[in-house]
Design brief:
about 0% strand; globular; 23 helices; two-stranded antiparallel ribbon; about 475 residues; disordered N terminus; about 70% helix; mainly alpha
């Protein structure tokens, strides 16, 4: 049984275990865990190497527009290009990341729960900024403000009603940038609203996206505490923060998607652990956020997976009924306002298959998508997935993996999943709570966190990402 197994009293709020419990070692033998770690690390390296080589070979024969396959971007031009990316700020970022790896586990063990959650948000936002700032201000803003982005389409809104009414037709005729064509109109309207309240600059839009990444970590921590217990949530916090996902959480609006969708899931999880009006209130909040999520991305309909899994495990159907009815009501209101979600999905699918998707071979991207996801979560989390023995934690971690697999087999995700799957990846990162092992668990956790920091900076300096 895992040392980080949950206390059923946590979900009801009857008792909170002392953080010092994290000091207790696992009962599993260290050699067994080391063997699993070596096997997973080897498989991780082989998969990435094969996927890169295979993608390079395909790129010589077909224009798949992924010069750094499976990641969207291009590799540094030789050793000189790689060393050039290691400017002074990159070195500072590496040092700060290592410092975080040494201090965050201690904070997670000793601080109050409120401080743990607050620190998780602040540290995530800080790490996102630090990682992306080695390319200057443009490293943070280019992905949000490019010519194909949602932000660039804000002047086309006019009035929300007119924008919604003509949205599907505009997508069919490719009148918007590629990102807008591939999504519902929600994100454009969010940026339009920012503009209306005087925060419509690229800086304001970028800040919103980065805050979304921090909110995703908070939501996962809240849900994890409720399902798997406070011990495991505390242990997972540093791994939610110091992940290679930071490269994309602050440079692509999908980071904002991750925050909204994770909050929707957390609300439903909280509803499933309560009864009466409190449960209904959380369910309604989850429904509103779920409706917002599927107006941001068609793929976020998959957030129903963790909701169903947790509610089924707790034998609670009422929150699901409330979420379904309220979310459908939101879609009905939007339909009356002029936008049909299903028509939008059909238009997006048609545009997608008329474009680069038709040239990207399915056989490759079934594997390349997973390889890109593994880059996002980092090698330490891949090992954590092999070490994780807490069944309750698997409800959420496994849900993240299930959402990614369903998206993979949908064939609506051929490449660029390092960005598109961020809302799924944040749940898989929670597996990091399994890495507190041995006689000095916080020291082991710090070592794995250093690995994550190095993996993050390697991605940031070796690949010029598109987002």
């Amino acid at each position: 049984m895992s040392v980080l197994s949950s206390d059923p009293r946590i979900a009801t709020g009857d008792a909170i275990r002392e953080p010092a419990d994290l000091e207790r070692p696992r009962t599993a033998s260290s050699p067994a865990y080391r063997r699993i770690a070596v096997q997973i690390a080897s498989a991780y390296a082989v998969l990435e190497a094969v996927t890169i080589a295979w993608g390079h070979w395909i790129g010589k024969h077909i224009s798949i527009k992924l010069d750094a396959a499976p990641i969207s971007g291009r590799f540094a031009s030789g050793v000189d290009g790689f060393l050039a990316a290691w400017n002074g700020w990159a070195v500072v970022a590496l040092c700060i990341g290592v410092l975080g790896a040494l201090t965050l586990p201690r904070l997670a063990r000793h601080a109050s729960w409120t401080a743990v959650v607050s620190s998780g948000f602040v540290a995530t936002v800080g790490w996102i900024v630090i990682v992306n700032a080695n390319r200057g201000v443009h490293g943070l803003t280019d992905g949000v403000g490019s010519s194909n982005s949602y932000f660039a389409s804000v002047p086309a809104v006019g009035t929300p009603h007119e924008f919604l009414r003509t949205f599907v037709t505009s997508v069919q005729h490719a009148r918007y940038g590629i990102h807008v064509q591939g999504h519902p109109p929600g994100m454009v309207l969010v940026f339009w609203l920012l503009d209306r309240i005087g925060l419509g600059s690229i800086g304001g839009a970028t800040a919103l996206v980065i805050a979304g990444g921090g909110a995703a970590v908070v939501a996962v921590l809240v849900a994890l505490r409720n399902v798997a217990g406070e011990q495991f949530a505390r242990a997972a916090m540093p791994f939610l923060v110091l992940a290679p996902a930071a490269v994309w959480l602050g440079s692509a609006p999908d980071g904002f998607f991750a925050g909204v969708s994770a909050s929707a899931i957390a609300c439903v999880v909280l509803a499933s652990s309560r009864s009466g009006r409190r449960s209904d209130a959380w369910a309604v909040a989850g429904a509103v956020l779920s409706g917002a999520s599927i107006m941001l991305s068609y793929g976020l309909v998959l957030i129903a997976v963790p909701m169903v899994i947790v509610c089924a495990a707790r034998r609670r159907a009422r929150p699901l009924v409330i979420v379904t009815l309220c979310a459908c009501s939101i879609l009905a209101v939007v339909f009356i306002a002029g936008f049909s979600w299903f028509a939008g999905l059909a238009a997006t699918r048609a545009r997608y298959w008329d474009g680069v998707a038709s040239r990207r071979p399915t056989s490759y991207f079934l594997f390349a998508n997973i390889a890109a996801l593994l880059v996002v979560i980092g090698p330490a989390i891949a090992i954590a997935l092999g070490w994780l023995r807490d069944r309750k934690a698997w409800l959420l971690v496994g849900s993240g993996g299930a959402m990614a697999l369903l998206a993979d087999f949908s064939m609506m995700s051929k490449g660029e999943t390092e960005r598109i799957w961020l809302p799924f990846a944040v749940w898989i990162l929670a597996a990091g709570g399994a890495l507190w092992t041995g006689k000095y668990p916080h020291r082991i956790a710090s070592r794995f966190l250093v690995v994550q920091v190095c993996a993050t900076m390697l991605v940031q300096t070796a690949i010029r990402t598109s987002w």
